[in-house]
Amino acid sequence: MLQNVIMKIFMLGSGTCVPSLKRSSCSVLIKISQSALLFDFGIGTMRRLLEVGVTIDKLSHIFFSHLHPDHTGELVPFLFATKYPETHRRREPFTIVAADGFVDFHEKLKLAYGEWIELAPGLLKISELGKTGRDHIDCGVFNVDSLPMNHTDMSLAYRITEPGGRSVVYSGDTDLSDNLVTLANGVDLLICESALPDNMKANGHLTPSLAGRIATDAGVKKLVLTHFYPECDGVDIAEECRKTYQGPLVLAEDLMEIDVV
Fold it and tell me: Which domain CATH number covers 131?
C-alpha cells in the first residue's frame, strides 16, 4: 500500500522578484496521493498551477517559508479568487502553515482589503510554527518538520515525509545554516535556493557552491537548485555547484516535474 503513494514535485516558479519571461517568482507544488501542498506563493503561481493541471480549490496546504513579496505576492489574489463561486464550488477547508506572526500579517491584509479576502467561516485554518526550534506536524498522509533558516526572523525550511519514508526538503531563502544541514539529513530531494553566482554572494542567500556544501554535508540523495536571479543566466551554475557536490543535480526551470523515488 505504501509503495503506491505518489509523490511528485512541480517547480512552478524558479525565479525571484525580478520580472522575467522565463521564470516566475518562487513556488513549488508537491503532490502526495490526493494532497496538494504549495510552498510559497509568488506572482504567477495560480497560472502555473493551471499549466500543470491543478485548480486552486485542490490546494490542501500552503506553506510559507517567509513573508517577502516574491514569496507571498499572490496570496491576496488567491484569497480573492477563492471567494468566487465557480472556483470553490467543491472547496474543502485548507491550511496555511507559516512561522509565528503570520496571523498578524493576515489580519493586516484584511485591514487593507476587507471583505474581498474574507473567507467563509471554517474554510481557512492557520497553523503557526515556532521561530526558534524544531516543529513537527502529523498530517496523516504526510508529516512536516520545520526549522528556522538564516534569512529573516520568520524564515523556515520544511521537510515533508510520506508514509513510505520518501522525503523532500524545501529550503526557502537562507544563507549558510546548520539547521538546513540537520533538516535535510539523508533526504531524498533537497530543493535549495541558489540565488546568485559564487562571485556575487549576498547576505541571506546561498550560491551554487554553498548550496552544494550543504547538500554534501547533509548527505542528500538529489539536489535541486532554484530561486535564480538573472545574474545566474550567464554562469555555469552546475559547474560552480560541482566544486562541493558530486551527487545527482537538477537546475530548476518553471513547470519542471520531478518524481521522488
Answer: 3.60.15.10
Is residue 261 one of the residues assigned to a domain? no
| pLDDT 10s digits, 31-81 | 998 899 999 999 999 999 999 999 999 999 999 999 999 999 999 999 999
Cell representation of residue 175: 544563507
- The three-class DSSP label of residue 213 is helix
Look at residue 260 and tell me if it is in a domain.
Answer: no
> What SS3 state is found at 176?
coil
Q: Cα separation of 16 and 84, whole Å?
A: 29
Are 260 and 189 a contacting pair, CB within 8 Å? yes
**First vs last C-alpha separation in the chain:** 15
> Is 137 contained in some domain?
yes
CB 242 within 8 A of CB 225: no
Pairing mode of beta strands 94-99, 124-129: parallel
Please state, in angstroms and rounded to a whole number, the distance separating the CA atoms of residues 139 and 162: 10
What range does the domain containing 141 cover?
A: 2-255
Amino acid at 82: T
Alpha-carbon torsion, ordered 187, 181, 153, 226, to 10 deg: -60
Average pLDDT score over the chain: 94
| Domains held by the chain: number | 1
Q: In angstroms, rounded to a whole number, what is the distance separating the alpha carbons of residues 188 and 209?
A: 20
| Within a domain: 88 | yes
Cα–Cα distance, 133 to 125 (Å, whole number)? 22
